[in-house]
Amino acid sequence: MSAADLPPDADLLAAELAFGLAEGDDRSAAETRLARDPAFAAAHDRWLAHAVSLAGGGEEAPSPAVWDGIRARLAANDAEPSAPPDAVLKRWRWATLAATLAAAILAAVAVERTARPPRIVQVQRPVRPPLVAVLTGTDARAVLAVSFDRTSGRLTAVPRGLATGDRVAELWVIPEGGKPQAVGVIPTDQPSWRLVPHGLRPDVSSTALLAVSLEPVGGSPTGQPTGPVILSGKGALAS
Amino acid sequence: MKQPFASPRSTATPDGDEQAALSDAMRRIAAGDQRAFAEVFQRTSPKLFGLCLRIMPTRQEAEDAMQEAYLTIWRRAGSFDAARGSAMAWLVTVARNCAIDRLRAAKPVANEPIDLAATVPDAAPLASDRLLDRERRQRLSDCLDELAPQDVRLIRTAFVEGSTYSELATRTTTPLGTVKSRIRRALIRLRDCL
């Protein structure tokens, strides 16, 4: 149905909605109709274009500070920071590769374990998918891929482009609504793994935030992050 | 009659292609694609900023409204429904809502009187952007010239200050019924002209 088939009353209502004149029940009815009636939606589109013209604004590019501000706040809005648009795709591709690599390392380890005959009779546990996370920050070059095997408690960290100067990178898990818990200092020049302490394992879940902070050599002296958080991200179960 | 915000289904026209591309970009933004978001910003920010500049009292406030609008677009791209109208219309609505909210939080617009008798006819031509729009804008401009300047002012005020019929009645100290009929008559005349 084209906009031309719309009854005049409905077209008027579309205009009133577009201009912001409609209120109360009329407005609710118009909003509802917008979702159900394509001809009404088309009429609303057309009237909205007229309204924008009538407002007289024309087109003007905002200053670069506007986009910079949006980029800076994207991190807070989604735990995923932004980079200059043309670099984003490259970074995402590498991050995916890193996560795949981390999962592959973990899978290789798992295969090695089951290939050895057990010395003690063990209860066969179902294989649980690993938790994987890609931690990123405002520096587009720095990425940490993390993979956590919930069965063994093994956590693998694959860093790329992390620059820590004379400090070290420490990994934290922050349970939802809880305080940061230290996982430990991670080397930044090579992949590494460790066993997460038993008490901490339940916290490394898809609802927790993983973060890396800069700490003095040896890790945080206080048990809580003392330096800036340079990377963060949430985990997801690999399917 | 050309449809400036063409439905994404009508891809026969250049406008249609543009709208289909924008609609597709919205889907990718909803999936978290930051590059698509950057593209949408590049394509749509001039128009949306032009609108914010007409709503907000200062350039800085217009820029602040823009930031909030695009962050809202980022967060809520998943709620854009292509069946409900074009992507551009959705974006304009988000931007307008952000700007109007900020305007009304800063200024007691609802109570500001409108002295219709003091209305000056708007002699400035409607601002134009791309070649495709020029003919449409000229047509709109010609049709607006046929309306009483007071009616144009009321309609514009509704759009850039967020005043509904009731609020316009209050601000012009005229009965609600009177305001409704006069604006409706004007909208009908406008429609018949376009």
Furnish the topology, listing elements before pairings.
The complex is a heterodimer of chains A (239) and B (194).
Chain A lengths: L7 H12 L4 H13 L1 H18 L8 H15 L6 H31 L15 E6 L6 E6 L5 E7 L7 E7 L6 E6 L5 E4 L13 E7 L13 E6 L1 E2 L2
Antiparallel strand pairs in A: 1-2, 1-9, 2-3, 3-6, 4-5, 4-7, 7-8
Helix pairs in contact in A: 1-2, 1-3, 2-3
Chain B lengths: L13 H17 L3 H22 L3 H18 L10 H20 L24 H15 L3 H13 L3 H8 L3 H18 L1
Helix pairs in contact in B: 1-2, 2-3, 2-4, 3-4, 7-8
Outline of the structure:
The complex is a heterodimer of chains A (239) and B (194). Chain A is an alpha+beta fold and 239 residues long.
Explain this structure.
The complex is a heterodimer of chains A (239) and B (194). Chain A has helices at 8-19, 24-36, 38-55, 64-78, 85-115; strands at residues 131-136, 143-148, 154-160, 168-174, 181-186, 192-195, 209-215, 229-234, 236-237. In chain A, strand 2 and strand 3 (154-160) form a beta hairpin. The two termini of chain A are 43 Å apart. Chain A is 37% helix and 21% strand. In chain B, 68% of the residues lie in helices and 0% in strands. Chain B contains eight helices and no strands. Chain B has helices at residues 14-30, 34-55, 59-76, 87-106, 131-145, 149-161, 165-172, 176-193. Chain B starts with 13 loop residues before the first helix and ends with a helix. Chains A and B meet through helix 1, helix 3, helix 4 and helix 5 of A and helix 2, helix 3, helix 4, helix 5 and helix 6 of B.
